[in-house]
User: What shape does this take?
Amino acid sequence: MPENRQIIYLRPDAPMKPEPGQRCNGCGVCCAIETCPVARVFLLQWRGPCRALQWQDSSRRYLCGMMETPTVFLSVLPARLKPWFRRCVNRWIASGTACDSNVEASAIFPDLPIR
Ligand code: SF4
Ligand code: SF4
Assistant: This one.
């Protein structure tokens, strides 16, 4: 396998990664490959896949657990600071905006059963 290639494991029903600049569709590719500054600072996780990457069945997309359910990953966060922290993460990761990942992703085993 060429050095610049990496195998990541995501659900087969996750959306395919869009082109950079298109709207983020929650494919999860970026967070499966490497962690963002939020994960590095608060989770002390420097390599992907990020453990805060969460699949949401209802929307069939991946979400950032540090924004959705931060106290699950950050037990020291007081409940009263949760709304503020979520707003901060939303801003830090530019949630819901355009895809800023230049990774070229392709599905290798698209027919594997969902576990
Ligand atoms: S930023 Fe791009 S790679 Fe990351 S989840 Fe959104 S669409 Fe996927
Ligand atoms: S903290 Fe959220 S945005 Fe950052 S790598 Fe983890 S799941 Fe992705």
The helical segments are 29-33, 37-42, 65-68, 70-73, 82-92. The pocket of iron/sulfur cluster (ligand 1) is lined by residues 17-18, 24-30, 99-101 (CB under 6 Å).
